[in-house]
Amino acid sequence: MPLPTPLTGVVPPLCTPLTPRGDIDIRSLRAVAERLIGAGVSGLFVLGSSGEAAYLSDAQRRTALGTVVETAGGRVPVLAGAIDMTTARVADHAHAAAELGADGIVAAAPFFTRTHPAEIADHFRRIRGGTDLPLFGYDIPRSVHTKLPAATVLELAADSTLAGLKDSSGDDGALRRLLVELRRRGLEDTFSVLTGSELAVDGALLAGAHGVVPGLGNVDPAGYVRLHMYARAGRWAEAAAEQDRLAALFAITEVGDPAAMGGSSSALGAFKAALHLLGVIDCPATAPPQVPLGDAAVKAVGRLLEDGGLL
Amino acid sequence: MPLPTPLTGVVPPLCTPLTPRGDIDIRSLRAVAERLIGAGVSGLFVLGSSGEAAYLSDAQRRTALGTVVETAGGRVPVLAGAIDMTTARVADHAHAAAELGADGIVAAAPFFTRTHPAEIADHFRRIRGGTDLPLFGYDIPRSVHTKLPAATVLELAADSTLAGLKDSSGDDGALRRLLVELRRRGLEDTFSVLTGSELAVDGALLAGAHGVVPGLGNVDPAGYVRLHMYARAGRWAEAAAEQDRLAALFAITEVGDPAAMGGSSSALGAFKAALHLLGVIDCPATAPPQVPLGDAAVKAVGRLLEDGGLL
Amino acid sequence: MPLPTPLTGVVPPLCTPLTPRGDIDIRSLRAVAERLIGAGVSGLFVLGSSGEAAYLSDAQRRTALGTVVETAGGRVPVLAGAIDMTTARVADHAHAAAELGADGIVAAAPFFTRTHPAEIADHFRRIRGGTDLPLFGYDIPRSVHTKLPAATVLELAADSTLAGLKDSSGDDGALRRLLVELRRRGLEDTFSVLTGSELAVDGALLAGAHGVVPGLGNVDPAGYVRLHMYARAGRWAEAAAEQDRLAALFAITEVGDPAAMGGSSSALGAFKAALHLLGVIDCPATAPPQVPLGDAAVKAVGRLLEDGGLL
Amino acid sequence: MPLPTPLTGVVPPLCTPLTPRGDIDIRSLRAVAERLIGAGVSGLFVLGSSGEAAYLSDAQRRTALGTVVETAGGRVPVLAGAIDMTTARVADHAHAAAELGADGIVAAAPFFTRTHPAEIADHFRRIRGGTDLPLFGYDIPRSVHTKLPAATVLELAADSTLAGLKDSSGDDGALRRLLVELRRRGLEDTFSVLTGSELAVDGALLAGAHGVVPGLGNVDPAGYVRLHMYARAGRWAEAAAEQDRLAALFAITEVGDPAAMGGSSSALGAFKAALHLLGVIDCPATAPPQVPLGDAAVKAVGRLLEDGGLL
How far apart are CA A308 and CA A301, in angstroms? Predict the structure, then answer.
């Protein structure tokens, strides 16, 4: 299905459930996707960092994406992350995703290497040149250690290399300036800006962002859909209250012991523990070498789900 | 005068005008302060990073603070930055500020050194112990290369070491979680949260921040006062439109050539160029070793002031 | 062939020549390998960062590795980089390398993700568990944004997970402490330490490192072989003079314009330009999206080769 | 006394002993200085980061410097750190140091601010212009978050702004290239290069560095003097063995619990604990807000002193 222009609303980055043996748990992944669609999301983003794309083999990535495309069945569009170090490798993932029926591609700047903005622009142009699908830039400096420069994004928006941006930079000031500049150039209806700042969504929507890609949306999609709806209706106090509730729930990402596990493991482990406690997925395992959450941490997730009215 | 609890509204971090010889330009500094008070700000923050505190000698700092305290004359409270590397040096600045009549102190975590959160907490407790004035934490990782941990801020809020926070971290997600947690602990009326994210003030106020410390407020204080007023009145669309206009104006901070001057020089030079073009200050010079803005850059500032309706 | 224990001497990280169309240039790659073997190197490291591994597709990686294994023909051992984000993906590359006849694997800590030292240790143990080949840790914080903790390296050396370390961290103080500690634990003859600090090789060998993996060794392998030989013979003044000459030659990596191209492109482009000028490879192209060196930069490479006595 | 040109040998950065009340312990500081001079050092560096300059008030700095100048009494030259954020503040410290009889000034790039290389060069030129004393650049990116660019150092060496460099960057590859380039320009006898890489001194001297500024030299000055002597005599194996012993001793800097104290506190606490155990200083206290070493850590320091043959 063609992507709406612009793409608005809630587009959660799906967790990828695994079996205890480490295979993709197809039944559980379908359940995650169905639950999100049922909650009213506008699209599904598969193989993002919340989807543990960095941990999955190429074969596992194909299984995950194929499963979600099939489950979505054209009800909502499916964006596929093409996470790899540089251009040719990303293009290979984009090609595979197109064959599996994805509706759009999400790609980050090169990483592992030291790259110039001119090289980043060329990177996106080459990826776009190799696929018929709309391409979203994935601004995630926490992972790739480069922030997409605003000038590069504007240049790639103007020449239609990029159809949109998934902004996980956390730099909401830069996002505001980008939104203002896109409007000044008349690009606000053709270039979709999705914020990944999942704790400041009300502010981002007030600033003109089109939608949100919240990792926490795996756990509470209905909350984010309500938040988006309130914002679209101009009911800002209710939007803020919903965001406050979700911000409190986000504490689940910090129940892991930072002295014993990485930040990625703690957040992804919490999303999966919550989905397991909610009965959506069969097994809360994350991919190696991530340290699993301990029992006390899982109990803390449970309490926070209760506090948030989800359990 | 005692600081209001909580401190709300617009509290600009004053630029420190200099003469061509590099002395504090007392007349111009008074004019800056008068213009801000006339625009309806809630307080004045002297000797912050926008005030070039890092560049001023101790004697110059005293002159600047004394001038502003005298000009304010009790009409609005004056916060004084106490910017130095570690505890004893900061405490000396805090002591000097108290003698000069400041109404509150703003201090950052230690820098130059490698410091543990427990040491940061002790740092603030010792500074607080050495002064009768309310103490604000200054979260400015761009300068001190440490983000104040939320747990530390909450601990120092709970035991009244800190009266508030000036959050220039740009991490609006962390700010949201802090605000939610302060409310959960019943501290929202006693601990003042001022955002330094001057391009996302509408969102921060929607999230519950008490006020804003905008460097750009030197140039357009009336804009920030309107933005704050709209937000307090729940007129969010108008708040967002005002913020959009200010975000466009913020482009003045990037007219400097990044190949020829530092980020600090470019932003501070632009604020001063604008104040000079607006007829507020006599000389746009910044302190050495900052490279001054070139003629083309100053013209670009002028055009942006015109676009923003200020000139 | 089994790797020598310990592995000593010069083990250059081979450049991967490309055709103008971007395919692996098999003839030129063979020529690079033959020239290195002829110069007396102790091993060949394929698919490292100097080999543009981050830019090559899986198929290209297989072609490059297979070509070098065949060319080496058992005369010197071949180490294969297994560069990917996390454990399962790295293990897949290691498996492919084993099938192609590599004699050892070189793997870095996870990247793109935020990983704990305990997870890094588990990562290496799992990779080691999936292959019969000796495994070298690749400490390259510039690319993966984590430094391998000394405690982790020592633990993995003691339990034979790692057969050695390629230290490209540039932290020669940490390297010294590691070497001292390996000796204290009696591991100095079983755990091979190869420095990637190609400008301080004399010091590293004096400190007890077993060998060196110099990117510049692509250009001047005989120089590094001489340097190693002088060091082994205790002829330190001559070792230092050789290192000085190589350090001057290293200026080729900075002829690229940093305002127009990334650090990776500049260094890799210079190595390839030099190999092209020396008549070793047919085409100096680097993989997209790297900006190629301009004519003036290539001329500067030529002059530096002349200054270094190579042209 | 005039500084030797070039300045060679061991120039330890003196610890600043404190009384239990936090005042400068003048008797103990004299004892530190006497012990260093007795061990054969070439100069004394007061108010560096090992001297806790960042923690001392201006008055304390004056006391410390005055005490060491008086104790030295012209037997060895005294370098004074002028550690502050930007130019005017550094110049004030340099002026005070000159009045107190220092023989040279050591200053870093600006910090807290975001500074361009052209501004860094201007910074050093202005400091130099304000004093008659030789000026050393202090390259300490760990503290100031900027590495002094090689081009800037070479420019400031060529025009005699800088008399030398104290390189605490830990980037020994960059140091090698600088040394090679200084020789190429005929500056090797007029510009003094002192390494702060205290665990790779043998390599640095082999590369042509003139001397070393070792924090650990507070504890074992005789070891560093021997290391330097061996190197000057071309007895490299003995130099390396001495460096190995010192590298093992350096483990004292890691006895502190990283979960409970900062890296600065752990290292400085260990140096002072060692000096206390050795009977040189009366009290091992470090300045607030540094967490003091616990009893177990102090015992570990003692054992390492025994292992190193010092106790």
Answer: 10
Residue A77 CA: distances (Å) to CA of A34, A72, A134: 13, 7, 12
pLDDT digits (tens, 9 = 90+) for C197-241: 999 999 999 999 999 999 999 999 999 999 999 999 999 999 999
Residues of C acting as catalytic residues: 138, 166
CB burial readout C203-228, b (16+ within 10 A) else e: bbbbbbbbbbbbbbbbbbbbbbbbbb
Interface pTM, i.e. ipTM:
0.96
Mean pLDDT over each residue of chain C, to the nearest integer: 97
**From chain C, which residues contact A within 8 Å (Cβ)?**
22, 49, 54-58, 60, 83, 85-89, 92, 110-116, 118-120, 122-123, 126, 142-145, 260-265, 287-291
Direct distance between the N- and C-terminal alpha carbons of chain B, in angstroms, rounded to an integer: 35
Non-local CB neighbours of C190 within 8 Å, separated by 6+ positions: C5, C6, C157, C160, C163
CB-CB neighbors (< 8 A) of B177 in chain A: 199, 247-248, 250-251
Which tokens go with A199? Answer: 């704790």
Strand residues in chain B grouped as ranges (E): 9-10, 44-46, 78-81, 104-108, 135-139, 164-167, 192-195, 211-212
C184/D236 Cβ within 8 A: no
Supply the pTM of this predicted model. Answer: 0.97
Chain A CB contacts of C116 under 8 Å are: 260-262, 265, 291
Q: Which of D169, D172, D230, D304 is the best mutation test for C, with the most CBs of C within 10 A?
A: D172
Cα torsion C181, C187, C192, C198 to 10°: value is 20
Q: Do D288 and B261 touch (CB under 8 A)?
A: no
Beta bridge partners of A211: A9, A194
| C198 to chain A, closest Cα gap in Å | 19
Q: Is B272 a catalytic residue?
A: no
What mean pLDDT comes out for the span B143-153? 97
Q: Is the dihedral of CA D112, D116, D121, D125 positive or negative?
A: negative
CB pairs under 8 A between B and D: 143
For the question of residue D138 being annotated catalytic, the response is yes
Taking an 8 Å cut-off on Cβ atoms, the answer to whether C289 and A114 are in contact is no
Q: Give the residue-averaged pLDDT of D258-283.
A: 95
User: Do D83 and B112 lie within an 8 Å CB cutoff?
Assistant: yes
Q: Which of D85, D112, D123, D127 to mutate to test the interface with B (most CBs of B within 10 A)?
A: D112
Residue A132 Cα distances to A64, A122, A135, angstroms: 21, 17, 9
> B20 is written with which tokens?
């061509």
* Pairwise CB contact (< 8 Å): A234 & B234: no
Residue from B252, B269, B281, B305 nearest B52 by CA: B269
CA nearest B209: which of B180, B234, B244?
A: B180
A288/C264 touch (CB, cutoff 8 Å), yes or no? no
The answer for residues whose C-beta is within 8 angstroms of residue A280's C-beta and 6 or more apart is A28, A31, A32, A35
Considering CB atoms only, which of A184, A203, A208 is closest to B204? A203
Residues of D in contact with B88 (CB under 8 A): 22, 55-57, 60, 287-288
B150 within 8 A of B181, measured Cβ to Cβ: yes
- pLDDT tens track for D160-180: 999 999 999 999 999 999 999
pLDDT in tens, A61-118: 999 999 999 999 999 999 999 999 999 999 999 999 999 999 999 999 999 999 999 9
Q: What pLDDT shows up at residue D189?
A: 97
Across C49-57, average pLDDT: 98
Residue C294 to residue C260: CA distance in whole angstroms: 10
Span C18-33, mean pLDDT? Answer: 98
* HSE-CB for B187 with a 13 A CA cutoff: 23
Tell me the residue type at B150: A
* pLDDT score recorded for residue B49: 96
